[in-house]
């Protein structure tokens, strides 16, 4: 015997609501298979649920889009910061700069390695340190570094920071919307269950397939098990 299956996706929930609403239009009160109370609740809840889902999915999609931009801006900014420090190290090796120039960037004087920039937070920290340190070094009248220049490093770093901040804000917004959406989903599932229970009870005196047909007309979903599908197909073939 087919079993009733409640919606398990947002689109399925929306379809269930839409079907119940459309089928209930112009149906006399005494012929409606579920209560006026539930119909009123459905009419009030459906547009809010739809709007909530739209806001959540829009925010999630925008977060994903900005996330892709962030990944690219992070890659480029890391490249510029890393190359800038490599140029500094090469200049030290060539004797053009003294090793204590590293102190401007918050790096140990004897440390010839480029700091780890493997995470966004590390790049935020070291990018800022390099830019501020180079500005302080230039204020002493020191020789400029080119290829990459400080200006190019700053442009790439600022672009990364801007995208990073936008993405973080979107993460917070999306998280709040997701929590709200979960609440709405719980309300939706409860409302669908109540409506479907009343529909099935209304048509409870009908037998088997006829009962399911009337219930399905109002959006109730029934699922056949594999062996039931096979039996149904064989019955149709035999007829």
Notes on the protein architecture:
It is built from 6 helices and 2 strands. With 239 residues, the chain is mostly helical. It has one domain. A two-stranded antiparallel ribbon has the order 1-2. α1 packs antiparallel against α2, α1 packs across α4 and α2 runs antiparallel to α4. The radius of gyration is 32 Å and the shape is rod-shaped.
Compute the number of structural domains: 1
Percent in strands = under 5%
What integer is the average pLDDT?
94
* Rg over CA atoms: 32 Å
The biggest sheet, with number of strands, parallel, antiparallel or mixed sense and barrel status, is: 2 strands, antiparallel
Strand order of the largest sheet: 1-2
Intertermini distance: 20 Å
Portion of residues in helices? over 70%
Q: How would you spell out the order of helices and strands?
A: EHHHHHEH
Globally, the shape reads rod-shaped
Annotation, overall tally of beta strands: 2
Q: Would you tell me the structural class of the helices and strands? A: mainly alpha
Unreliable stretches, pLDDT < 50, 5 or more residues? none
List the total number of helices.
Answer: 6
